[in-house]
Amino acid sequence: MKNFLLPLLILSFFHATAQEAGNVNHGRNHYRPQVQQMSNTTTGNSDEIRIAIRGIYNEKPTQFSATFSIVQVGTSLEEIDALMNEKITAIKAGIKAVDPTIEVLTDMISFVPVYEYEVTKKIFSKKTYTEKPAGYEMRKNLIIKYKSQVLDKIVSVCAANEVYDLVKVDYVITNLEAIQAKLQARSLEEYTAKLKYYSQVLGEDLALKKKTLSESYNLVYPVESYSSYTAFSRSQLPHSRNGIVNDMAKNETSYYNPVMVKTHDFVINPEVTEPSVQVFYDLYVTVKLKKEEDTKPTDKKTVYVVTANGDLKPLAL
Predict the structure, then answer these.
(1) Which of 200-209, 229-238, 256-265 shows the highest mean pLDDT?
(2) 255 with 24: CB under 8 angstroms?
(3) 96-149 pLDDT per residue, tens
(4) Which residues contact 132 (CB under 8 A, 6 or more apart)?
(5) What Rg, from alpha-carbon coordinates, does the chain have?
(6) For 176-202, how does the pLDDT look when each residue is reduced to its tens digit (9 = 90+)?
(7) Distance in angstroms (rounded) separating the CA atoms of residues 20 and 146
(8) Which of 145, 155, 227, 277 gives the lowest tally of CB atoms within 10 Å of its CB?
(9) Distance separating alpha carbons of residues 172 and 276, to the nearest angstrom
(10) Other Cβ atoms closer than 10 A to 13
(11) Contact 78/39 with Cβ under 8 angstroms?
(12) For residues 280 and 179, is the Cβ–Cβ distance under 8 A?
């Protein structure tokens, strides 16, 4: 093979920005990269070439799990337990009316005493604050498992029973092995096409070269893909330097912001707009360009002996 320096091979993906951008690009939330970032999917030198295939699979969840926190206080265990059970029973009945297949579980978190201070004052002394038990506090979590988009109705049922704290929503997928198989199959297609192309560029069949590979998986759930957003616009009207300016509180919220496709070679299910589980797969193949040099045979060692006359004589082995 000719001795040459393999140039760096770079595939560039450019992301086009549409006119419809929304308020996220306004004010303090403004983000617009000045330089287009390029993704190095293939690099190489005179010894080897490294091909990288990166893919994304967007999967709608097959099941959801919402966790609500319930707090109940009272003066006795019997009172707290009765009030807590009454609230949970009402929530379960309301949710079953929404969908009988929804599963509702309870998780005991804590049961602790609540204290208050008793103030006493004696003659010729300062006030004394003494801590004493004033009641109890019980905390439980409601874990609600459902399959269809009924979270709004579940929240309404909980709110009607004075439960407002939605702690988190977990997204569950049950076909991860099938997703991984599809990512591998698509990556193999991309790799085969690239290997054929680079063989034409270099003028030799890279399929016959020695190769090593590595792969990696990663999952990103919707809860990890939300970004904060603050509606922000400052008045440009002139005002007195000595005057008092009262700014209004700006609304802060969050929005679903999945990983963009511009640094990847392909995406399966690209048109999913609702929060989804994103499965990432990376395949790296290193192609050895130089043939391994044949190992030279080790020279045979010669052993000498000293004769009685003081001469060196090779010893036959």
Answers:
(1) 200-209
(2) yes
(3) 999 999 999 999 999 888 877 777 776 666 777 677 777 889 999 999 999 888
(4) 115, 116, 117, 118
(5) 35
(6) 999 999 999 999 999 999 999 999 998
(7) 34
(8) 227
(9) 10
(10) 15
(11) no
(12) no
